[in-house]
Design goal:
The protein is α+β, with helices and mostly antiparallel strands. Helices cover about 35% and strands about 25% of the residues. The strands form three sheets. A five-stranded mixed beta sheet has the order 1-2-3-8-9, covered by helices on one side. The chain has a two-stranded antiparallel ribbon with strand order 4-7. Strands 5-6 form a two-stranded antiparallel ribbon.
Length: about 220
């Protein structure tokens, strides 16, 4: 019998053809193997999936084979590709966004530093950031400085108040018209804002962070 995957694309008069059933039954394994080899070949053009094709990648970027595991060889090629790109803001944003929720990248001309501002509510891989930055850092830039920025938030408080109507039958005598919580409902809101603070981290050694000052700076 012809497998279902082929019956769906063949005309009905093929379904009971015994010779066709033998043909497709034998060729099914070969077709699956060919599809697997084609997918494997396509993977060699993608650095994240390349395995036996890493030797060609290494010849392009290093002109020699590299030593290490597949993961280590891929990482070496990735950094080599990154180093060939121009040291400009789009590349720095691309680099910084790999290791946390990047808000912006700024260059401090006087200090010769690149500041990466991150959202402090998300995890940050500083070791990866410093490693990649040092690999592509030009000589006129001293270092990278990660800056953590707390997100802004607004807190709204609500309150209820009741106003009562009072009748004065006699001068100096106050008498509520109705007891309880009757009256006109009044609502008020209070908005409380937060102050954003950024903490600068001094990193004299790559991957080692020391706050310059406790608290907020």
């Amino acid at each position: 019998m012809i497998p279902i995957r082929y019956r769906e694309v063949l005309p009905p008069y093929w379904y009971e053809n015994e010779v066709a059933g033998w043909h497709f039954g034998v060729m099914e394994e070969e077709i699956d193997l060919r599809g697997k080899k084609m997918n494997e070949l396509v993977d060699q053009f993608l650095l994240q999936r390349a395995t036996w094709g890493l030797g060609l990648w290494e010849w392009i970027y290093f002109r020699e084979d590299q030593i290490g595991t597949i993961t280590q060889r891929r990482e070496a090629i990735r950094r080599k590709r990154l180093a060939k790109k121009p040291f400009k803001l789009p590349i720095l944003r691309q680099l910084g966004s790999q290791y946390g929720k990047l808000l912006q990248v700024k260059e401090e001309f006087l200090a010769k530093e690149i500041h990466f501002e991150y959202d402090s509510s998300f995890p940050i891989n500083m070791a990866g950031l410093f490693g990649d930055f040092e690999y592509i850092r030009p000589v006129h830039i001293n270092r990278a400085v990660p800056v953590l920025q707390a997100p802004e938030s607004t807190i709204t408080l609500g309150a209820k108040a009741y106003g009562h109507s009072v009748d004065y039958p006699i001068c100096g005598l106050e008498m509520p018209v109705e007891l309880g919580t009757s009256g006109t409902l009044a609502q008020r809101t209070i908005t409380v804002g937060s102050v954003t603070s950024a903490t600068r981290l001094d990193s004299p050694i790559t991957g080692f962070e020391i706050p310059m000052q406790g608290g907020t700076a």
